Structures are given as C-alpha cells and as structure tokens.
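Propose amino acids for all 86 sites.
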C-alpha cells in the first residue's frame, strides 16, 4: 500500500467531484467527465504560477518550483470549489 490518498466529494444529489488522479477509476463508479480547473504555467522572470481563472479563482505565485504551484493549486481547489461552505 502506497499511503496515497485521492478524495472524492459527493454532494447530496450523488454527484462526485475531486481532483484528477489515477488512484480511483472514476468510470468504474458511473459516468465521468474531466474539465480543466486551472493552468500551471512558467512565470515571466522565472518560477511557476497556478492560474485558477477557469474556476473563477486568482493567479497564485510565482512559486520557485512547479511542485509548489501544483500544491497551491490543489489546496485552493479543495478549499474553494470542492468542499461545501460551512
């Protein structure tokens, strides 16, 4: 067991949302679609940004490492688009 975790957030109507990952075969639990929620891009002058505008969010960064931009992207999406308010 790798200890890796992939979360799915299920709404009362049964719709599930989550960050794309390969730990769960979403097609195995029903019809699935994937949409782009953000873009990780090289920043002018160096580093990386997480552009969350496709999800109605901000541009985060720049971060020195791409992995840091990916982590910030995932954190923002989970806090602002996947978990219910409250």
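Proposal:
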């Amino acid at each position: 067991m790798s200890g890796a975790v992939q979360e799915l957030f299920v709404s009362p109507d049964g719709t599930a949302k989550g960050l794309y990952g390969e730990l769960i075969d979403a097609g195995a639990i029903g019809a699935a679609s994937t949409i782009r929620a953000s873009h990780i891009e090289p920043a002018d002058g160096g580093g990386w940004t997480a552009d969350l505008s496709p999800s109605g969010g901000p541009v985060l960064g720049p971060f020195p490492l791409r992995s840091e931009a990916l982590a910030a992207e995932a954190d923002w999406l989970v806090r602002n688009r996947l978990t219910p308010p409250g």
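The chain is about 20% helix and 20% strand. The radius of gyration is 14 Å.
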